[in-house]
Structure to design on (169 residues):
């Protein structure tokens, strides 16, 4: 599906939008440990991206390392995961999508619940399509209830975020 209708003229913007559909435009990860406090999800724990692998649109701002800011209105798809270091305490490891500082509908993933073994683990965020306006921002927020602060994992367990342009509004 494209953003073309019968009789439309080919413009640079329309061609650019069509070329971006389905493309990953941002990929980053957390290469070093980050401390996540114990308790419910909290925007203060949003992951800080310290290694940007790909920023096609050049919009990531290192001064706001928890945010990816939308450069153009349209549909975007968020993907990501949070890697937690080993800790046997607690029963929950999860991650949530926040937009403009608040939890979004369909934004919570809690696939790890019950007895937690003392092994590193990765919690996948839900893959969520979202209509975004210019200037909206997205954050991946982890949560855990081990009873004390827990570090995110590094290496092959490290956390990541991926943003794909899905099409115009």
């Amino acid at each position: 599906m494209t953003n073309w209708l019968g009789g439309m003229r080919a413009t640079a913007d329309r061609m650019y939008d069509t070329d971006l559909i389905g493309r990953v435009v941002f990929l980053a990860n957390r290469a070093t440990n980050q401390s996540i406090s114990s308790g419910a999800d909290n925007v203060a724990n949003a992951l800080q991206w310290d290694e940007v692998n790909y920023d096609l649109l050049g919009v990531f701002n290192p001064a706001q390392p928890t945010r990816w800011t939308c450069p153009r209105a349209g549909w975007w798809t968020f993907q990501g995961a949070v890697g937690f270091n080993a800790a046997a305490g607690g029963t929950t490891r999860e991650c949530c999508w926040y937009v403009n500082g608040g939890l979004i509908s369909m934004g919570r993933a809690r696939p790890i619940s019950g007895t937690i073994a003392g092994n590193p683990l990765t919690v996948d965020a839900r893959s969520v399509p979202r209509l975004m306006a210019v200037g909206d921002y997205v954050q991946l927020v982890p949560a855990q209830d081990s009873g004390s602060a827990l570090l995110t994992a590094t290496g092959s367990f490290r956390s990541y975020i991926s943003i794909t342009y899905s099409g115009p509004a």
The longest helix spans residues 12-20. The chain is about 5% helix and 45% strand. Residues 45 and 165 are 26 Å apart (CA to CA). The chain has a mean pLDDT of 89.
